[in-house]
Design a protein that fits this description.
8-stranded antiparallel beta sheet, 14 helices, FAD-dependent oxidoreductase, 4Fe-4S, metal-binding, FAD/NAD-bd_sf
Length: 506
């Protein structure tokens, strides 16, 4: 048996940030991860770029998450944040990264902070003293061991620790069907003539639901590709394949992005419906279906998609990407209305910024009006993540991090992205350390003191108007520079008037 001040279960984007944050507060910290590396879905599920840290041009996720991006850039493995010319469908900025650089940057930052990692392990039980979590039972090659802690952070993404502790939760959107956002098997293809792909996208806008070019506001490593784009479309091609039976796919369009590697495209283009991310048999069937879709689509693309004749499949996720499962019920439930209208909270510990992005729960189509259809809803303003949403009802000794905090299905559709859960992880890690070192239960933490500690780590919990103005001007200057140099086209500008003096396209 080993004792720690803080145990973080799950080494994904929220978990490793939480562990670093806790350790930097002086807490003896253990992070438990089922794979042999950190990064969670970002590395194991072969995700594409990090979603923005930004609301518009305002960077709202700062501190340790930004240090992490800087570390990847120092390794020559990331573009940093690139501004999209059209934020619909992908958000205001995207940060492309090499997954090996991601793993190493996360691990080195954690080790430098004094975090103890335990790989190839998962939580199989919890130790309780009444309603208080006092430790985690871990199963791995060595058998089963007990690790005790003053505070445990559940960063499993599925609320596994909270569920084992008897915490209340809602699955997916709740109701009788408990439907959750669909899963995806991500994949990469090399040998792509990206110029040919881009040329087709330029010439056939009617075949795309949305598309965007990207602009570097800050220089990055010259050996990385300097021109990036994203598109969702080839709808006519996909429809012909579905109608003929040549293509097996869970959606009716192809979403693709450039990467940090020349001639390599990333595809977020499969859709696996009805997967319960907390059930091994359901996950197994989802994995099988996801790989079936990947093999069908990758073969179909090489035969029919422009620029793909010499392409080959080079990478798939170690697992399917799970977007949604449990929502642990806490002292406060963050709602879609809170998110949509930018509600501010007295106990804010992080900020949310991403549009409400809900993928079609049951069909192949993209965004639409049907109750089960996908939704993309822009926000009125950034909103606050309240500390109460990280503290589960009744259960003590436990803090929730990541996409499984206390929130509705609609609210989750916004903060579930990498930037959002990193900010939540930073707050959870600081809170866990403050509670553990102060000898108080997480729900009794002095919130003003907690907020001061988060701000001291570089975290943002309030808007800085002067910084917003500087960031906005830098983005405008960068877009105008690339327009003048012919690196991007007015065709993809959602707000052309800001940059060209012309009226925006309707």
């Amino acid at each position: 048996m080993s004792r720690f001040d803080v145990i973080v279960v799950g080494g994904g984007p929220s978990g490793f940030i939480a562990a670093i944050a806790a350790a930097r507060q002086g807490a003896r910290t253990l992070v438990i991860e089922k794979y042999g590396f950190l990064g969670g879905m970002a590395t194991s599920a072969a995700l594409g770029p990090i979603s923005p840290f930004h609301f518009g041009d305002e960077q709202v996720i700062t501190g340790i998450p930004q240090e992490f991006v800087d570390r990847m850039m120092d390794l020559g493995g990331s573009t940093g944040h690139l501004r999209t010319t059209n934020p619909h469908g992908s958000g205001a900025y995207l940060c492309f990264y090499d997954r090996e650089a991601y793993k190493w940057a996360a691990l080195t930052l954690a080790l430098e902070a004094g975090v103890t990692p335990l790989f190839h392990s998962f939580a199989s039980g919890v130790e309780m003293d009444g309603d208080k979590v006092t430790g985690v039972r871990v199963t791995n090659k060595s058998g089963t061991q007990l690790y005790e802690a003053r505070v445990v952070v559940d960063a499993t993404g599925d609320g596994d620790v909270a569920s084992l502790a008897g915490a209340e939760f809602v699955m997916g959107r709740g109701g009788d069907d408990r439907a959750a956002q669909p899963s995806t098997m991500m994949f990469d293809m090399a040998g792509v003539d990206t110029e040919a792909v881009k040329s087709y996208m330029d010439k056939h806008p009617e075949d795309f639901e949305w598309a965007s070019e990207l602009v570097a506001v800050r220089p990055y490593a010259k050996h990385l590709p300097q021109r990036h784009f994203v598109g969702q479309g080839f709808k006519a091609l996909v429809r012909s394949g579905l109608d003929s039976g040549e293509l097996y796919l869970g959606r009716d369009s192809v979403l693709f992005l450039t990467t940090t590697h020349p001639g390599v495209l990333h595809f977020n283009s499969t859709r696996i419906k009805g997967v319960d991310g907390t059930d091994a048999e359901s996950l197994t069937q989802g994995e099988i279906d996801g790989r079936k879709q990947v093999m069908s689509l990758s073969s179909f693309l090489t035969k029919h998609m422009p620029g793909m004749r010499d392409a080959r499949l080079i990478a798939t996720g170690t697992q399917i990407g799970i977007r949604e499962s449990r929502h642990i019920l806490g002292e406060y439930i963050l709602t879609g209305e809170d998110v949509l209208h930018g509600v501010k909270q007295a106990d804010a510990v992080s900020r949310g910024y991403f549009p409400i992005d809900i993928h079609n729960l049951k069909g192949k189509e993209g965004y639409g009006d049907d109750p089960d259809a996908g939704k993309w809803t822009d926000l009125d303003d950034s909103y606050d993540i309240p500390y109460r949403a990280l503290v589960p009802k009744r259960v003590d000794g436990l803090i929730i991090a990541g996409r499984t905090i206390s929130a509705t299905h609609e609210a989750h559709g916004s903060f579930r992205t990498q930037g959002g859960v990193m900010g939540i992880g930073q707050a959870a890690g600081v809170a866990a350390a403050v509670a553990a070192l102060g000898g108080v239960e997480p729900r009794k933490v002095d919130v003003p003191r907690l907020q001061e500690a988060i701000v001291a780590t570089g975290g943002s919990i309030r808007r800085d108007p002067a910084r917003v103005a500087r960031e906005r001007q830098a983005a405008i200057d960068a877009v105008r520079r690339d327009l003048a140099a012919g690196k991007i086209s007015e065709q993809y500008l959602a707000d052309a008037g800001t940059f060209t003096g012309k009226a925006p396209r309707l």
